[in-house]
Amino acid sequence: MDKYGLIGYPLGHSFSIGYFNEKFHNEGINAKYENFELASIDDLPEVIDSNPELKGLNVTIPYKEKVLNYLTTVSPEARAIGAVNVIKVIHKGNDVELKGYNSDVIGFTQSIEPLLERYHKKALILGTGGASKAVDYGLKSLGLETVKVSRYERPDTTQYDKITPEVIQEYNVIVNCTPLGMYPKTSSCPDLPYEAMDSHTLLYDLIYNPDETMFMKKGKAQGATVKNGLEMLLLQAFASWEFWNGKDI
Prior knowledge:
Blueprint: E1 2-8, H1 16-27, E2 31-37, H2 44-50, E3 54-59, E4 73-74, H3 76-81, E5 86-92, E6 95-101, H4 104-112, E7 122-126, H5 130-141, E8 145-150, E9 157-159, H6 165-170, E10 173-176, E11 202-205, H7 214-220, E12 225-227, H8 230-245
Parallel strand pairs: 1-2, 1-3, 4-6, 7-8, 7-10, 8-9, 10-11, 11-12
Antiparallel strand pairs: 3-5, 5-6
Helix pairs in contact: 4-5, 4-8
């Protein structure tokens, strides 16, 4: 039986295990999907060695960037983004090749593109982690200018206290790549001047639990278009399967 899995820490929130095991059951695929909760990315070789039937892995927080050091090859897209969330495991005799891809960018661009209007030219990306890099790459590929927003002074970022109502009017696409508002802390949200938003504002939240975050609710109250990350998740899971069983670098 083929095996697939997810590496990250912690994995209590994982969507993938339910999605893939249901897919395998419904489509009669002789495979199973497991969670591999790794306290350190240094434990990855042991997971590979002790699971010879492993064909593929998804990668989540906090290892999307750290895993790059363990891969044999990386797709040009994932290399440009600087983050990997899909690994294809190829067994060649006693050797194992690990090929890295990024399906976040595919899921994100395919799900936000239908919502973009001609007046959506500039975007704020909230957060600086691995997912934000895929979002940045995706928005630029769709022709938008981007600025990353961080709580801390970092190169090539702005800070929340510099996001004025005027900035909100100019950067009218805002993507939340932070965990703010995720269950169970559903009352929290990024610190922004929501009152400056209007019907030209598009808010996209990578969070999908709850369905409507406080970030989305506050924007919606001002007339903004809002979307959560569930469709992105489904699309990137579909892309993961394609990488494991179809496309090659």
